[in-house]
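subagent[fold] <- orchestrator: predict structure for attached chain, return tokens only, no commentary.
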Amino acid sequence: MLRNYRFPPRYGPEWGSGGIFGLRYHSGVLYFTVAFEAQAHFVRKDGERIYEFELVGEKPTSGGDTYNAVDTVDEFIYFGGWVHAPAVYLNRTISFVNKYSHVHEYDTENDEVKLLWKESIHHETDWAGEISDIIYDPYGDRLLLAREDGHANLGVYSLDRKTGKAQLLMNEPSPKGTLVHDTAFFGVGNNFISGVGEFKALDLITNKWESFKPAGSVDGKPYIRPGLGAMASAYNRAFAFVRGGLFIGNPFMGDEFRFARLFEFYTFYAPFRVNAVNVGGGILTAFNSHHDATYRSEMGENIEWATTNIIVGPSVLVYIAPPMAKIVGAFGARITSIEKMDGKILLGTNNTPNTGAKEATPFDTGNKEIAVLDEKIIQERPPAVSFSLPLFLPSMARRYGAGTFGGIPLEGYREPRMLLYASRDNKLKVYEYDLALPLGSAYEETFDIKAGRNIIDLSSFSGIISFELEKEDMKGKARIELL
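subagent[fold] -> orchestrator:
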């Protein structure tokens, strides 16, 4: 069906690179948006339509979607996000005067695009909350909109599919949500500062809200800045994928939200700007190595440069089928969107991150692609993967009450090992756990570490393992090899 799989840099004034977002195959139509070029594609067997958001405002437009805000109802595809219409670029900055949040409706039967709702605060440097998630409520026949990225009108809104009228339901910032049974769960918090602070649950029948604080971690150690990237549901529980791991639970059935460490390197390695999809009864999502970054600051100038630009490993595609977490693919800078279609897995990918609003260019800087994989990858042996972590990162995290790193899935690997280049004698604790539901506790084992090169055989462990050094090591390095 696809005429183009690759999308090189093209005009679209924004910061760094956007990506391919919102991949959704529905009623014989493959939809996706190419950002920052603000092009919504609708691909059918008999042709392709490209919509450039001209219903929002004048051209040239830029943006589109950077969070995978899409859902389907009957013959309709509902897609949202944000767009500059027209885009205003000057001296490596973007004016936000014409930045709109939007929701559109695409009719697959008649090949028609309709602007259902738009909103702007018309401010030079601030903007109205972007639409970062769309969830259909089958009981109320309405769209639930999550909004966290922005300066005004944040929270959860309902949108009438017929009239386009939006109504505020909850006014705390929320980037993502998911349906579980007859409840919609939303993660609440500032993603780029503190991360998820609580989960709020909307009863779809009574329209009443309840709040739940997340509980402790499976390995018993603290976690910090759990920024929320994607949510999904399975096993009558909500799964919230965050920087450093995931929360799993459903308090309405007596299972509190607990944290399982997964790919915690104290960088911005996270399941950001990607979605999670149900495949084979489980959940498929990605942890990205370079999704957002500070560009112009000098290395070492601040912690933000270090945490966003130190690349410790490839982006990984992960399949969650409790008690198992399994790496099923290794990719470059980031995976931006995931969809299942005709026995294939479609991935939107990008080689370049988002940067800051003051680091804008007049064009999107990334090379974006759609990769097509066989769905059978979830049943095959995992790919060889390695992670290389400067030990000053977990050592610095100790000063913020954290420091446990890793959360490495060993499923399918026969010869996992760690090469620990230590600058001093130390002790290394290894925590072993899995995702059996409800989440349990970890097993702990300690290794003596000598200054120099240490080889630690990890083949005797199973499930997921995380690590903790007894003492700081500001000059050492840990390399984890999965073979």
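orchestrator: received. Logging for downstream: The radius of gyration is 22 Å. The first helix runs from residue 303 to 309.
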